[in-house]
Specification:
Helix 6 runs antiparallel to helix 7, helix 7 packs antiparallel against helix 8 and helix 11 runs antiparallel to helix 12. Among the domains are: 126 residues, Serine Threonine Protein Phosphatase 5, Tetratricopeptide repeat; 127 residues, Tetratricopeptide repeat domain (Serine Threonine Protein Phosphatase 5, Tetratricopeptide repeat), CATH 1.25.40.10. With 408 residues, it is mostly helical. The chain is built from 17 helices and no strands. The chain is elongated.
Length: 408
């Protein structure tokens, strides 16, 4: 759908693991590396409430999240996976029949591949004039519009984009011209996903899959739509099929791995991420995904070097640093974890989970005053997040204990 990017949408809002990062619990909870409090802790440390669901951008970005599990104050959420990028350019629209209209389509396809959007638009417009009843030129023009809009290929990423609303109407017209033309239904579903039209998107994408069941792009787009709207089992089935049809795509393996994490099949997710890493060994997102999956399984020793390499390859990616901080914190390396959280906040001061984790790490360190500042900042950023409230309540109990303790 976008230049230099596949039509496979980036994982939508239900597909990413936890927003920015999982929140480290400082008591020994099922989400920690150990089931007992840290030996050096002078008191019961602050615990964290897990993120209320699995989101794509932040703990509060719940508009399209998978239905959230109940909040369990005794557990801890794991770090987050990143959004896998689409792997390949869109398939061409030219059919190879040698007609003047098809030649114009081929010119448009080549120009779009080369990122020459104006030339692509002119070629597709020529094809539309030569073959006004052919839906393919309308699909090509839609691809140009989507590339020009630079919209993120995520669910509801551009709900108010007027150009995409116009593109939606053109694609609806393309479907009417030829209901059996699968690319029109596929692109229609993608645009509806970007605009946040969940159910119409699923209808269009199911039709695309029915028309071309062996197209990995159609299967992948349907998987994204299903998971974005809470149909995780259907989404996993479609993404599994996409990975099967396109086994050389690292991005499809990453999508599959993230979907498996959502279904709590962590060992299978690790296998998918490991395959993705073999296909793309220097991709920081894949390194992050594998590291966070291993961290979720409490395999911190294996997770740490992967996250360190992800940060080295993408030092400006705030969520990777926050994930690294989480693992360091779970290993008891509080000073290193606190340093990573500070670096994370320098990159993205609105990352709620980084503030929460910083607060819990500072509390573990015994710096209750600074811990309060961090937790209050998290609450200020997202007043509806229950984790900040829970941590502040526990911090208040610790502060009362400190106030009542005899002076040395």
């Amino acid at each position: 759908m976008r230049r230099k990017r596949s039509r496979e949408a980036a994982l939508a809002a239900g597909l990413c693991l936890a927003a920015a990062v999982g929140v480290a619990c400082l008591a020994g909870s099922p989400g920690c590396a150990s089931s007992a409090p840290a030996p050096s802790a002078p008191r019961e440390p602050v615990r964290s409430v897990p993120a209320p669901g699995l989101f794509v951008a932040s703990a509060s970005a719940s508009a399209s999240a998978v239905p959230a599990p109940p909040v369990d104050p005794s557990s801890s959420a794991p770090p987050s996976a990143s959004v896998p990028p689409p792997p390949s350019p869109p398939p061409h629209l030219a059919r190879g029949d040698g007609s003047p209209a098809d030649q114009a389509l081929a010119q448009g396809d080549a120009a779009l591949d080369a990122d020459q959007l104006d030339a692509a638009k002119r070629a597709y417009q020529k094809a539309a004039r030569l073959a006004p009843r052919d839906p393919a030129p309308l699909v090509g023009l839609a691809r140009v519009d989507i590339a020009r809009s630079n919209s993120s290929l995520q669910y509801a990423s551009s709900p108010d984009d007027p150009s995409l609303r116009r593109t939606l109407k053109d694609l609806q017209r393309a479907v009417k011209l030829d209901p059996a033309y699968a690319p029109a239904s596929l692109e229609l579903g993608r645009v509806q996903l970007i605009l946040g039209h969940a159910q119409p998107a699923i209808v269009a994408l199911r039709k695309a899959v029915a028309l071309t069941p062996n197209d990995p792009e159609a299967q992948s787009a349907l998987g994204v739509a299903c998971i974005a709207t809470g149909y995780a089992d259907d989404g996993l089935q479609a993404l599994s099929r996409a990975a099967e049809l396109d086994p050389s795509s690292a991005a499809r393996q990453r999508n599959l791995g993230t979907a498996l994490v959502l279904r709590h099949r962590l060992a299978d997710a690790v296998q998918a991420f490991e395959k993705a890493l073999r296909l793309s060994p220097d991709d920081p997102g894949t390194l992050n995904d594998l590291g966070t999956a291993l961290a979720t399984m409490h395999e911190l020793t294996r997770a740490l070097p992967l996250l360190q390499r992800a940060v080295a390859l993408a030092p400006s990616q705030a969520s990777y640093r926050s994930n690294l901080g989480y693992v360091l914190q779970q290993q008891g390396k509080l000073d290193d974890a606190i340093a990573e959280y500070h670096r994370t906040i320098e990159l993205d001061a609105k990352l709620v989970d980084a503030w929460l984790n910083l607060g819990t790490a500072l509390a573990q360190r015994g710096n209750l005053a600074e811990a309060r500042k961090a937790l209050e900042k998290a609450q200020q950023l997202d007043p509806q997040d229950p984790r900040a409230k829970a941590n502040l309540e526990e911090l208040q109990e610790l502060e009362k204990g400190d106030a009542g303790a005899p002076a040395p």
